[in-house]
């Protein structure tokens, strides 16, 4: 399945933008420019370009507050640092509820997350979670008092995807959760900037 790069017109994106505009105080907040979800063999790849009201530093402070990452979305159940594993690299555990339509499963993830200036790079530790491989990159740049993001995640589930609902439903679910989480990251980061 390949979904072409598209502007802000998907149902998930519309829901996120409605959420952001209702919660905002009239200033610019999280804005999705493009979202592109594709399949690459067994892997799912999601690329997003977006703009945030908060600064890159404040956004990264929220994303690296591992004791509170689980508060960014209702499906995130637990998050914590397992300690440093190298220069600027922490091992981080998250537990989440992955839902496709009304069916949910608890997923675990152990990642090595490295901060490099305004970039955050997370790589799944093989054999220690619900994904056989995965890598997520957040690249922030300053943009008109806020930040611009280039985001890419690629992951391979270590579990079988139900043939009843299939890859398309899983892809939509991942995209929606990611966009909702980004909107919440911006909201919390704006509070840090103030």
Q: How many beta-strand segments? A: 8
Structural class of the helices, strands and pairings? alpha+beta
Shape: globular
CATH topology-level name:
Alpha-D-Glucose-1,6-Bisphosphate, Chain A, domain 4
Distance between the termini: 43 Å
Q: Helix fraction?
A: 25-40%
Low-confidence stretches: 1-27
Taking Cα atoms only, what radius of gyration do you get, to the nearest Å?
16 Å
Strand content: over 45%
| Largest sheet data | 8 strands, antiparallel
Under the CATH scheme, which class? Alpha Beta
Secondary-structure element string = HEEHEEEEEEH
Average residue pLDDT: 85
Q: Write down the domain tally.
A: 1
What is the annotated CATH architecture?
2-Layer Sandwich
* Helical segment count: 3
CATH superfamily: START domain
Largest beta sheet: strand ordering: 1-2-8-7-6-5-4-3
Task: Explain this structure.
The structure is a single chain. 25% of the residues lie in helices and 45% in strands. The protein is of the alpha+beta class and 194 residues long. It has one domain (11-193): START domain (Alpha-D-Glucose-1,6-Bisphosphate, Chain A, domain 4). The protein has an eight-stranded antiparallel sheet, covered by helices on one side. Helix 1 (11-23) runs parallel beside helix 3 and helix 2 (56-63) packs across helix 3. The protein starts with 10 loop residues before the first helix and ends with a helix. Residues 1-27 have low confidence and may be disordered.
